[in-house]
Structures are given as structure tokens and as C-alpha cells.
Design a protein that fits this description.
heterodimer, A: 6 helices, B: about 140 residues, mainly alpha
Chain lengths: ~150, ~140
């Protein structure tokens, strides 16, 4: 299925992926009573604060992410992906790491878990990172900075 | 043991969802953020699907005395909008826009483009360590 005017979009795969992400977060919430926030769980796994979950649990979640992606890669026969240069990835990663710790979350904790809870903090955070993400791409495009 | 098993099930589902939804492709993520250019709305469907399922899960929470596999709920209680929250989120969005990766897809992409994803993840952990260093172990 495609959306008229947006030949690149994959709405059904997107929706199916989103439902899986929602189920994943629901398993964490209803199973362990915790937020499935990737930045907080990753920080916890490596001993940098973050989630209050047992460190072994944080590791299990983090290890599960590439395992889950691997299942999709194997089932689909490979996924399209283009990545930025090492230097760009390093700069972006550093900024994401600082930002998610200061902002107490990322797309998963604030964007999925917080917004669905109608949390004011998470909604403001989500609107903020969407706005600066959009602005960053727009400015980079205007400057002719092609990163992918 | 129950914590470990529940966590890995959650992580695997999460990683599969990210890959299936196209979020492990930075080009698709940047395409979503490129609303003034060649916009790709796929990510809106990912967010929408995830938020709908979680909205239902949140309605189940008050009916449970405790989580299914744990003693009690540990949910965020803060409600104040601080400069730290907004500044951090703003920074995160900039990093997200630069390379088209946020933490989940960055880690999940370790099986898709290992070298590139590893650079992003190591740099992200370094950024987290910087915050930890400046704030001490209190946060």
C-alpha cells in the first residue's frame, strides 16, 4: 500500500512496526511496572544512571533490540539503510547522549510511553525534539549538507 | 529471572518493531523530519501504532494491584517543566536530525550496519558519561 503523493512511504509496515513497539513497551509496563525508555535503559546497562530496573534487566532489553532487528533482517532478506559518515555519526551520537540524559528520555520514553500517558513533561519534550529535529534537517538541507 | 526474561522479550519486540517500521534506516527517519522537502510520513504511522497500543496499556495499569512479574510499579512522577528537560530534548532533537538516529534504532542497527551503528552508540554512551561526570552520581 502506498499513500498518494508519497510513493516512498510504507504506512502498513510503519503501523505494524509501531504496534510491535507499543506491545514491547506494554510488556515492560504491565510486566515489570517500568517505562521502556531506551536511553534510560542503555544508560543503566553501562552503569551511567538511568532506569531503576536491575542492571541485568537493562542489559537484556538492550541486547534484545539488535536481536529483534536481526529477526526482521533474516525474515525479510535484508533491510535498506544508509548511514552518515563516521565523523557525522560520532557528533550526532554525542549530542544524542547528552541530550537524552539531560532531557530524561528519548523517542521511546517520552514519545511513546509518555505521550500515550498524556504526560505534560513528555509531550513538551516530544514537541521540542521533533521541532529541533525538523529544524536541523531543514537547516542542513538549506546549507547543502548531504550526510547520507 | 522474571525481570531478565520479561526485559529481553520487550527488547526483542521493540527491536523487531523498529526494523519493521523502517526506523533503522536513517534516510527514512530524516525523510520524516524533512517536512519542508521530500516528506516521508512513515514514522507518523510507527508513532501512531505504538501510542495507540500503549494508551490501552496505560488504561490497564490502574486495574492491576501490581505488575504481572514484579512487586510494584515504578513510574515517573515528575510533572515540572524545567529548562533542563526542554534544553535536553532540544539537544536530542538536533542529534536525531543530524544523523537520523535515536538511541533505539542506533542500538538495533548494530546488526544492520555494525561499524556505523557502533560509532553512534559509543559516542552516545560517551555523551551520557559526560552528563554523569558533570553531575556526579546523583542523577
Amino acid at each position: 500500500m502506498t499513500i498518494p503523493g508519497f510513493p516512498e512511504a510504507a504506512p502498513l509496515a510503519g503501523l505494524a512496526g509501531g504496534i510491535l513497539i507499543g506491545l514491547a513497551a506494554a510488556v515492560m509496563l504491565l510486566g515489570l511496572g517500568r517505562i521502556a525508555g531506551v536511553s534510560g535503559l542503555a544508560a543503566k546497562a553501562v552503569g551511567l544512571g538511568g532506569s531503576g530496573i536491575a542492571r541485568s534487566g537493562a542489559w537484556m532489553f538492550v541486547v534484545g533490540l539488535p536481536l529483534g532487528a536481526l529477526i526482521v533482517v533474516l525474515a525479510s532478506g535484508g533491510l535498506e539503510a544508509s548511514f552518515a559518515s563516521p565523523r557525522t555519526l560520532a557528533i550526532a551520537g554525542l549530542v544524542v547522549g547528552i541530550g537524552t540524559r539531560l532531557g530524561s528520555g528519548c523517542t521511546s520514553g517520552h514519545g511513546v510511553c509518555g505521550v500515550s500517558r498524556l504526560s505534560g513533561r513528555s509531550t513538551v519534550a516530544t514537541l521540542t525534539f521533533m521541532a529541533t529535529g525538523i529544524a536541523t534537517v531543514a537547516i542542513m538541507n538549506a546549507l547543502g549538507l548531504e550526510v547520507l | 529471572m522474571r525481570t531478565a526474561l520479561t526485559s529481553i522479550v520487550s527488547g526483542v519486540l521493540f527491536g523487531a518493531g523498529l526494523a519493521l517500521g523502517g526506523m533503522t534506516d536513517p534516510a527514512r527517519v530524516r525523510g520524516f523530519l524533512d517536512i519542508f522537502g521530500d516528506w516521508d510520513p512513515t514514522l507518523a504511522f510507527v508513532m501512531g501504532g505504538a501510542v495507540i497500543v500503549m494508551a490501552i496499556a496505560w488504561r490497564i495499569v490502574p486495574r492491576l494491584a501490581e505488575p504481572v512479574f514484579a512487586g510494584e510499579f515504578h513510574l515517573p512522577t515528575k510533572s515540572d517543566l524545567t529548562p533542563r528537560l526542554i534544553g535536553g530534548a532540544a539537544l536530542f532533537g538536533i542529534g536525531w536530525g543530524i544523523a537520523g538516529l535515536c538511541p533505539g534504532p542506533g542500538i538495533a542497527a548494530l546488526v544492520i550496519e555494525p561499524a556505523a551503528a557502533a560509532i553512534f552508540v559509543v559516542a552516545m554512551l560517551a555523551g551520557m558519561a559526560v552528563v554523569r561526570l558533570f553531575e556526579g552520581a546523583s542523577s
